[in-house]
Amino acid sequence: MATPRDLSTASLDPARTDAADVARALLVDPERGLTAEEAARRLAHHGPNELRAAASTPLWRRLLAQFSDPLILLLLAAVVISVIAWLIEGAVGAPIDAIVIVAILVLNAVLGLVQESRAEHAVAALAVMTQARSTVLRDGELRTVPSTELVPGDILVLAEGDQVGADARLFRAAALFVAEASLTGESEAVEKHPDRIDEVVPIGDRRDMVFKGTAVSRGTGGAIVTATGMATEMGAIATMLDATVEQPTPLQQEVSHLGRLLGRIVIGIAIVVMVTIALIEGIRTPADVVTVLLLGVSLAVAAVPEGLPAILSVVLALGVQRMAKRNAVVKRLSSVETLGSASVICTDKTGTLTTNQMTIERIVTASGTVDLSGVGYAPVGRATDHGHDLAAGPLRLEAQIVLGAGSLVNDAQLAQHDGVWEIEGDPTEAAFLVAARKLGGTREETARYGRVAEVPFSSERKMMSTAHRHENGDLVVLSKGAPDVLLRHCTRLQLGARIVPLDPVRRARALADMELLSEEAFRTLGVAYRPAPELEGTGGGADAADFDESAEQDLVYAGVVGILDPPRPEVRPAIAEARAAGIRVVMITGDHPATAARIARDLGIIDDEGIALPGARIDGMDEHQLRDAVRTVSVFARVSPAHKLRIVDALQAEGLVVAMTGDGVNDAPALKSADIGIAMGVTGTEVAKEAANMVLADDDFATIVHAVREGRVIFDNIRKFLRYLLYGNMGEVLTVFLGVVFAGLLGFTHASADGIVLPLLATQILWINLVTDSGPALAMGVDPEIDDVMTRPPRGLHDRAIDRGMWIGIAITGLVISVVTLLTMDVFLPGGLIPGGTDTFDVARTAGFTTLVFAGLIMAFNARSATSSAFRGFFANRWLWGAVVLGVLLQVAVVSLPPLQVAFSTASLDGVHWAVCAAMASVVLWVEELRKLGLRLLRRRRADAAAHAR
Ligand SMILES: Nc1ncnc2c1ncn2[C@@H]1O[C@H](COP(=O)(O)OP(=O)(O)OP(=O)(O)O)[C@@H](O)[C@H]1O
């Protein structure tokens, strides 16, 4: 086979070449597309259809960036000073502290880097899940493929809401409008037409081409891909489009703010500690200066959780992965936090609350009602009239017109694959194809019509029309749409084989028929038609360009179908769960108010008195009236996408955090405006997915509620490790500070070989923070749900992660930790508060150090809830247990292994020491248990009092 010319590099300009010639040059038949093998071959030749990503930062620079924190730099400076002092003093022995501190910092940087890479990988994996897709014709069939797999010569099939995946030459277009702002900056959508352009014109004027990165805002079309990847016009400007950098989430901002605040406070404390030591103990040698300096700076490094932003990213990213496994694909980490605060979920009805498995069960025409049996897409079922097989006659004829016309003004396809009936396209439309097959004779008739033009369906118009030519040359217009809308375009009625005027009585009857179907929860669709001889005169045939909305008049109303779209079984409990969690559910649908209200009632969204507010009423309201309305109304029906935007704005003005679902191209503004835009993964358009923060892989409402729960759990877990880290840090700072003060008061100055008496050494402080504490903190990030997060109201968007209650808890716990640590040291020291101690200062300090580490590890269990006992879900997190056991082993090692004893100035402990350390450390657990018990009792008493008052 000849190789197709690569148009992107050839001199041929597709915009100035006939579509047929472009197809020929690219060796493709526009009616069949490429074969799968040929597409694979071309993909191998041209490479994936991607814009080259920006080069990644080299590893060494990322490692170096780990040291860029000002406090770490300060510590490094202190280390340098200590080395200089050691050199001045004659370089005796080895500068052990300096070596140990640098080693710990390197270890810490490597860990930080690993965290960062994990978070990045998780985010990259999300990008793959939310990648854009395109519809192409391959082997004569429609296929949806990732847009990265498009190749030159592919036949793109474009519909409203599609992202154009590659540059392509149009060969067909029906009312095709493309938004090209991303490429040309032009905000208005441009109408496209396959007619060749003869001059060389700028991109914005190449009406016969569509370009990668733009979006179809209206209409349909077919185009031959002429360029992919960097060869596209978008590729030409791609150097300007560096990969978007993830902005820090509000929580990440709060944490870095917290870091800076702590940094300042701690530097203050460090200075106070250093001055206190100098005053109480007196600085005697340069070594004393270095010891105090290192201690002060290490304290600062320890107390400020530098690793927190990285841990935060990992926890968010892991949460995002868990959500994705449950079909909620979040595009940005920040959306996870917002999800947890959602206070109202506005949801579509069709496909989200319902199954979107449409079955026509009823056809109501002027002569009566036909019932159709059978479920699903298999076209087997009986047509009956009052329980009897439908006989030939006016009713059958009318039903045949309804279903026949309905399956012609239709873009869906029905086919049997391996014995299973499957549909391609809109399920509402496919329902007509299935029903038409159930009613014998209909398909034979429709086969005689060929489509010549169309005005596509849109959620604003709520109807669509096509023009067809019969074998005998006659032209007709066929329309289907929301019956109340369609009836406005009808002046006549089909009655048996006759066409009669649609007088007020007949119109009222038709409306009543539809209303009745709606109240029974049926989705309704009307069908109408008219002979259209006048189309013949326009431009030598019913040309697509001459056919527009103006043809939708003077129609003959044929009848209405009742489509069953059952609610998803999991939705009712999900709505109850949302309500319990203080989240309101609002249904916003294009469907009829009666259908909407009935289904909302069945699902528990509204009670029997609840009503559906029609979109037309919203039009008559100003902002204030709408704000009043959204306070009470939970069902909006027959709305258009523009109403959605107004509803979002009104709810937000009421102070609510709004999650909003959407699927169509016109939903994009509402999705962007909502706090969380949620696009449908299955039925949603590419434009909607692009505008949303989250994509539902299964279109299911219940998935949104799961995602909210997950968002709350993630936020809870973040609070857990904040609490945990700050408990420990507060404990250390207070231990050092109080230790120095008490040492002075008790006269323990210069009691050890190191010169100055310090309750903890710089290396030990760094050990605790950067080694033993990191494991439990990480494990906390994947903690299972300890407190039921769906029993509390949503968190305010601007509520702080660390509130006052938490600060009080941190202060109390920090104080308890420092007191037990100092008491442990005192127990073993001779001449302390508690008599009987006989150990050396080094042993006593090692015991204090160990108590501090153990208390920290025990606090990990406590930090998991502000109110629940640490024993609740005690064994639920095996990572936490792993981390705690590892922490204990590391501590045993640092106390008992001689090389580590030298590095960390520790001394061996015996059995009694270990037991006392463990017992003293456990005191924090009991104190916290008592405090939480008190809190719980208080809370219960308040709840009882409130219940009593009611
Ligand atoms: N393919 C179609 N052709 C003609 N009319 C349609 C088609 N699909 C839907 N309709 C009519 O338009 C109305 C509105 O449809 P739209 O897609 O805006 O909302 P919906 O799918 O009913 O609900 P939701 O907004 O909850 O997804 C429907 O109730 C139906 O009567």
TrEMBL record:
GO terms for molecular function: ATP binding; ATP hydrolysis activity. It holds the Pfam family E1-E2_ATPase. It comes from the Bacteria. It is a multi-pass membrane protein. The keyword 4Fe-4S does not apply. InterPro entries: ATPase_P-typ_cation-transptr_C (IPR006068), ATPase_P-typ_cation-transptr_N (IPR004014), ATPase_P-typ_cyto_dom_N (IPR023299), ATPase_P-typ_P_site (IPR018303), ATPase_P-typ_TM_dom_sf (IPR023298), ATPase_P-typ_transduc_dom_A_sf (IPR008250), ATPase_P-type_domA (IPR059000), Cation_transp_ATPase_P-type (IPR050510). The chain crosses the membrane at residues 71-88, 94-114, 261-280, 292-318, 724-749, 755-772, 805-829, 849-867, 879-900, 912-930. The keyword Translocase applies. Residues 13-87 form the Cation-transporting P-type ATPase N-terminal domain. It catalyses: ATP + H2O = ADP + phosphate + H(+). Belongs to the cation transport ATPase (P-type) (TC 3.A.3) family. Type IIA subfamily. This is Cation-translocating P-type ATPase. It comes from Agromyces tardus.
